[in-house]
Amino acid sequence: MLDKNGYRKNVGIILCNNSNKLLICKRYKEDSWQFPQGGVNKNESIKCAMFRELFEELGLGKQDVNIIGRSKNWLKYELPKKYQRKTNDMMCIGQKQIWFLLRLIADDSKICFHFSERPEFDAWEWVNHSKPLDVVIDFKKNVYVEILKQFIPILKV
Fold it and tell me: Does pTM top 0.85 for this prediction?
């Protein structure tokens, strides 16, 4: 689903543990790390999209997490030209995202990448709040800076 400006609606997920470490994931067969994220389907609420992506990408359900924060507004990033593509005769130039901050209340062993036919990730780790800014791809960095600015005070780190 693209908006009139060519941005795809998307949800982002920052999952923290009881030590307020953040989960970052390594993209499948790449040396690229990021927070889980994914598109919003037509007629799907933002919250439902977040729970669907949580399950598809991490194998976690509603019962495994508590929602402790949500972004105040849409955060946008533009894709480099080589990643831009046409969708329904419209050019997708980037993503606009609503972010959720979740606390894992289940055991780490519940995290699993195999609930999707094509897993997006093949590794994960718990990190301090500054590490994602060091490893995320450059074109997403401004969104990571902004969402961490919103969410870190909630965690009181």
Answer: yes
